[in-house]
Amino acid sequence: MTLALLLQPAAADSLDEPAEETPAAPAAAGTAPKAALCKPGTRDVPIASELGSAGIMYNIAEHPESIRAVAGRLLNEALTRQKKADPAVNCESCTGDVKPRIVYRVAPVHLLADKDQDPVCRKLDAETGKKPLAFAPRHFASIAELNDWMMAFSQGRGDEGKQLYAQCAANCSPRYQFEIAPVADGLEVDTRVHCGLARDRASDDYEVSTALRIECEDAASPVAVNAP
């Protein structure tokens, strides 16, 4: 386990496969514009990715390269992007689109060699890669409050942290995903964890990333493109 903060792209229950958008087929030359049909689905639009250190002293001192500092910066930037997101652009020809949610992920960069991996971690890696560990949704008043909880959670403190350490045992390394929905009085957070292969403890580097998760619902009727 790591004494650090946190998380990786996901579609459905998997934390390993980013949602992708199917490119539209080009229109044939000389044909009239047709009504665009909604393509419902979920896709992740990457925002930023940085390396952060899980080193104890880095995080105590809130060094600019610490996970705590990187998390605060990337989450603030993601919230700004989320507020400016335009549903009409994100889900052209669809209705029912809600404001995008923020997906924040943290995962270790360097893993132990395959020959050094514990069989327990191999088993958990395969199982939770398909069905991540799920934790009850939480509400936080601010990013700072969320960041404090994520640090405690990743260190096995609190009810959720103790549950995590019990489920992701041995020296297996969690990969964290936090899906964040801004609400009027703060942030609603849904947590999923992929209990993966053990990290190389000679390195404290983690990849920290953010994305906007956009959900588009089918329109009641087609919307004409280039209509006069």
What does this structure look like?
By secondary structure, this protein is α+β, with helices and mostly antiparallel strands. Helix content is 27%, strand content 29%. The protein is built from 6 helices and 8 strands, in the order ββαααβαβααββββ. The strands form 2 sheets. The protein has a 6-stranded antiparallel β-sheet. α2 crosses α5. The longest helix is centred in the first third of the chain and has 18 residues, at 67-84. The chain starts with 34 loop residues before the first strand and ends with a strand. Mean pLDDT is 79; it is low at 1-13, 20-24 and 221-228.
Short summary:
With 228 residues, this protein is an alpha+beta fold. The chain has helices spanning 56-60, 67-84, 87-90, 119-130, 143-154, 158-167; strands at 35-36, 41-53, 101-108, 133-140, 173-183, 186-196, 205-216, 223-224. It is globular and about 50 Å long.
